[in-house]
Amino acid sequence: MAKIINVIKGTKDILPQDVEQWHILESKALEIFSKYGYKEIRTPIFEATELFARGVGDTTDIVNKEMYTFEKSERSLTLRPENTAGVVRSYIENGMARLSAPVKLWYKGPMFRYERPQAGRQRQFHQVGVEMFGIKNATADAEVILLAVNYLKSLGLNDLEVELNSLGCPTCREAYKAKIKEVLKPEFDNLCEDCQNRYEKNPLRLLDCKVESCKAIFEKPEIQKVIQSDFICEECAAHFAELKTYLDKLNVKYTINKLLVRGLDYYNRTVFEIKSNNLGSQNAVCGGGRYDSLVRNLGGEDTPAVGWAMGMERLNSLLPVPELELLDGYIVSTSPVEAFELAEDLRDKGFKVEFDLANKKFTKQLEKASKVAKRALILGEDEIKAGTVAVKNLSTGEQVSFPRNQLPQVLAQG
Fold first, then answer.
1. Interatomic CA distance for residues 366 and 232, integer angstroms
2. How far is CA 53 from CA 60, 112, 173, 264, 303, in A?
């Protein structure tokens, strides 16, 4: 016997009994996002490596540690670790800047990161996300946050916490970075190796560290004083205040988290996360923010933009398991030709119907019908001669014969 080849670590088969939950996530996305005017976009699964190095940031863990990169025809290609950079590339390449603002896009699909697999996170994982281009006002920030909240609520998820922060603009952020470095300098040797590397390259990323010893350092009063300071400039502060006004008016409850910086270099001003208390320590189900410089950094015109992404595996872990969807009918017959013909006739009329392809014994067919269908459609020799079908309700046991041409009306009753 040949050796069995198993699924690669960090990847997972989505089996037929699980796919229904994915359909729920995807259909709700289309329903809710369409109400806000978002159009679906589908970008390639792999892109030029340079896109992520320039877009996501060469100081991020994603670029430094987690990307699946390969060489082909002397060109470096990477399986997408996130999709904002790809959507921005498509926005520029396809001349969407010529469209009337705002340009509203949404996506769904697989992403790839080499990291330790854990609950709700795999090396091949899936995200659903939105991106809005062309609006610098806080109305855009408020809409994408409200859109995320309403999408989650449409899935039955109400135990949510929205966390906000403002990272300011590049100008006011530089002064803040300098203060962070100054106050952490005496603690440098006590920081983890990653934080020591980030200290010069991107000191704001230190605040995103999940190592407990680093988190304890950040809780020290003299360091908290800097973290909690209002470092952002007057214009950025006005933008943040405007956002909070909209969220208050829209009854979106939120808290301010000064440690929230997100893990990607392209964010400025607004950053946010939405968390669920049902996920334990890794409880973020949505993350996003504003990235006003990314379009320009990737070769486009200066364009304000804001968006978010959600991990679909994590969303699935929060949803109740849906009930098995039963067939409208299962044809029980010892005449496979007649059964096949009836099945196709009913399928053409929009009903979900199967029959026994292996032509098993009558009792075995009835047993199968009881597991997969609402009704058994019994088509024996007598029924074939009479032009009827015996319909057995598999929940009540009631059985009634009907003329074959009345069968669609019977099945339509649910």
1. 71
2. 9, 15, 21, 11, 20
DSSP conformation class of 373: B
- pLDDT tens, position by position, 129-183: 999 999 999 999 999 999 999 999 999 998 899 999 999 998 888 888 888 888 8
What is the DSSP annotation of 120-177? TB-SEEEEEEEEEES--SHHHHHHHHHHHHHHHHHTT---EEEEEEE---HHHHHHHH
The candidate with the shortest Cα–Cα distance to 139, out of 236, 239, 287, 268, is: 239
CB-based contact 272:308 (threshold 8 Å): yes
Placement of tokens 């319909």 in the chain: 391
For the segment(s) 329-411, the CATH number from 3.40.50.800, 3.90.10.10, 3.40.1160.10, 3.40.50.410 is: 3.40.50.800
With tokens 């024996």, the residue in question is 380
- Decide if 307 contacts 129 (C-beta within 8 A): yes
Q: Cis peptide leading into 16, omega within 30 of 0?
A: no
In 264-322, DSSP assigns E strands to 268-276, 284-290, 305-311
Topology of the domain covering 16-169+232-318: BirA Bifunctional Protein; domain 2 (3.30.930)
Q: Which two tokens stand for residue 54?
A: 């320039």
For tokens 């929060």, the residue is 318
What 3-state DSSP class applies to 286? strand
Distance of alpha carbon 358 from alpha carbon 339, whole angstroms:
12
Question: Which of helix, strand or coil describes residue 330?
Answer: strand
CB 354 within 8 A of CB 308: no
Q: Phi and psi of 20, rounded to 5°?
A: -55, -40
Number of Cβ within 10 Å of residue 332's Cβ equals 27
DSSP-H helix ranges across 164-285: 170-184, 193-201, 212-218, 221-227, 234-249
Rounded to whole angstroms, the Cα distance separating 167 from 175 reads: 12
How do residues 177-201 score in pLDDT, each as one tens digit? 888 888 888 888 888 888 888 888 7
Instruction: Give the Cα separation of 350 and 408 in Å (integer).
Output: 9
Overall pTM > 0.85? yes
